[in-house]
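Quick one - inputs below.
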Amino acid sequence: MGGDGGFRRELRDYVVGLVLALGLSGAAFALVAWAPWSARTTLGVVAALAVLQLVAHFRCFLHIDLKQSHRDDLQLILFTAAIIGLMVAGSLWIILNQNRRMM
Amino acid sequence: MSAGSASERRRHPGLNLHESDAHPSDGEVVFGFWVFMMSDAVLFALLFAVYASLGANTAGGPGPRDVFELDPAAMETLLLLSSFTFGIASLAMKYRRGMALLQGMLATTLLLGLGFLGLEVHDFVGMEDTGALPQVSAFLSAFYVLVPTHFLHVSLGCVWIVVMMVQLRMSGLDRITRTRLLRLGLFWHFLDIVWVMIFSFVFLRGLL
Amino acid sequence: MRIEALAGPWLGRLSLSALPTDSPVAMGAALVAVFGALGVAGYITGKGKWRYLWREWFTSVDHKRIGIMYVVLALVMLARAVIEALVMRLQQADAVNRSGFISAEHFGQLFSTHGSIMIFFMAMPFLTGVINYVMPLQIGARDVSFPVLNSISLMLTAAGAALVMISLVLAPFSTGGWSGYAPFTELRFSPGVGVDYWIWAVTLSSIGSTLTGINFAVTIYKKRAPGMHLFRMPLFCWTALCTSILMIFAMPALTVATALLALDRYLGMHFFTSGGGGNMMVYANLFWLFGHPEVYIVVLPSFGVFSELFSTFSAKKLYGYTSLVLATMTIAVLSFTVWLHHFFTMGQSAHINAAFGIATMLIGIPTGVKVYDWILTMFRGRVRFTTPLLWGLAFLVTFVIGGLSGILLAIPPVDFLVHNTTFLVAHFHNMLIPGTLFGMIAAYQFWFPKAFGFRLEERWGRVAFGCWVIGFYLAFMPLYVLGLEGMPRRSAEVFDEAFRPWLLVAAGGAVLIVLGMAALALQLAMSIRHRDRNRVRAGDPWDGRSLEWSTSSPPPEYNFAKLPEVQGRDAFWTMKRSGRAYPPLERYAPIMLPENSAIGPLLGALGLATAFGLVWRIGWMAGLGTAGALVAVIGWSFVRRPGRTVDERQVERTETRWHAVLVAAVPVSREHECDPRNRGLADVAA
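Output:
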């Protein structure tokens, strides 16, 4: 059996994940609640925090990291990210442009 | 670290069973579920794109600032941190820390999930009382599809947890229940990530 | 009507007025559907085959049987959609400056069902069936990764097809075309149930296709035989992989588009409506986010089929294997970057049109690479002009013509001129008929002997080929001319005398295509009758190159008694050349196979009930269907199925029988592969 070492190390991962999740979400909510900066800046920071939290969840809860032996499986996630990026960015480019031209 | 190197050997991305419990074909099942989740992720991404495309079209009805509130969204975020309790359940399974811990953690996760669902229903009802119905405007239609789709996923996740708790009682931990719990874990963590996107890009953005 | 009043609360909007009694043509079609179904059911009952069908086919989770059922479904739907095409061509030829023999409303239903069937219930099931049959054999696997899921996918697709067939009788179907553009398909402009039929039929099929894509991708990633590295796979498997990836990532866009349209229609939301802040362009955008990858979903498998054909019938290894693989992957990725070219005219800025136009033209590059690779595969080969290869040659020429018209359409200013004309109709038929249908028919001719143990008759195959190819050119080349002359697509009547001659030629072409269908049916009937003459039980009638030919025809249910060890590309070809093709009998191990399962047909039936209930607003039926499906899935998860073991004695019996066939067969040289001497054992020295 892997023994206590594995258990403790993985438990640490989850605790780190929990702390990161609380901290990052808390920061985002706090920024919006207290609004110290302009809306534009805050939105940028909130988006950055969301991406950071996404990475944190993938790393600490889903245990995805970059130094795996099974790189072809990791590619699935990266490929999905690329496709989502293409679809969402392309759609917004098109639709927002059309919206502007209809003004 | 000899103990470490044994569990470093992974058969598939993300969560893994303990080396001694793993079966060669588990990778197939778990990888299949990953692929499904990625397909589901595209579905959510498109709903976000629709929301972003139509979000400004309030058609004279209430806008985001009129209907969103910060506190409930923050509460729901806390409840969905049940990712952590599910993580402990996964560890209890992987390192055989007893059925009581496993079932207890699953039950805790379930309660947190149900609490989340209850709060959301409360929010929806509150919104509808103020006249913010999905039929009012494109903005509200988009909102009422994106967030309830996540709601539906969490509901199915809750049903799945109940089913697994029953199956664990019936047949204990064997190959089938183990890989199912593994997939349920992936699903639960995935829903948590979707929620992060929802509170950031729907609620927080709307309240700016 | 009293019956309607009674039916009201229980049957939603459904009443006797749904029968298409107002149009003789539509009534005729409904009667054909009803009597056709009754006839088939009666025949099966007469032969007492229901139990056999249920046990051996409907509940089967064997990838080979599921593949065959998919192809049967596709052929049935192909027959209907081809006949609809003929009716439309006849109508247009007839309705110049006068009303034709069918109404505009009916014409609208015809082009909607024709398009929806051809894409969702012909092309998709056909390619899914062929991949299902061939791919696991080619990679040396015993089945797909998730056999039960495979059965569920099939049954959901069949349920969608059944819904479209039901709409013939309980009419009408949508008049919104296969793309169902809003706001026309919104409740305000299409208040009937037609669009709902379209939405739920397409939704059932898209769920099935998503699951299929996942299944195939995982199978190819995880179930390859020892030594079968990705870059040793036959090209067909590569195209199957890329198609599956496209299904996984493109289908959600369709699901979202149809689901939001349904919410608009059922709950009064405002996604694509003209008022309430809705935006119909969001629909077009979502639909083509799916729709363009879909084009490559249906084309790529044919590319794979042709790669196998050119190499097998030229007795040469595929030229430029790596470049073909890379071209396939490039096409798959690029297909996600061009969707806007389907709506250049929708009003976005010119620079966006330019970007997507350039991306569209880029796809021509990998496709061109493929064409040259195929030509060079045949170059200096000993090419045998069998029926499957003929389809391949017709494809090469025709597809390039279609591709060139595509390059024209990729230029936004040109697209503005021919937008919504029959030029576009000519273009996409010019891509999809050679690029999908010819490929699938060729696959059917090529692998039929593998699936059933006897070859198809060459003569009728050649007649069918001639009718199809000449019919295609006659039917679609005139549409290019008509489009340039400004004839709008989807016109029930036309008002320019100058169109008439071209429309008559096109109608003639459609008649020839229907004759081609008849010739295919005749070929099948004649081949079944003369099957003893054409038996190829030994399994290798074409001197094949990949592993599926190393098994008996038809293959045993477990595919391989021992999983093959693969040394390189063209695995079976090299085995034959080094004398290792048919290993001697030995002691076999028992083989585990999944058990048959009724969950697939059950979920298909519940899906159909849900969809039918939703179409006609029959609440209890939709509710029971959905709840039933949920309960069925949960209940099924409690059933523990250990699987079924084929014991070693049974394996040994099967293998011994096949070896006897092999010993009795005389190796046949390639010149004689199309005559009765061919028993499925290739003469390797020749």
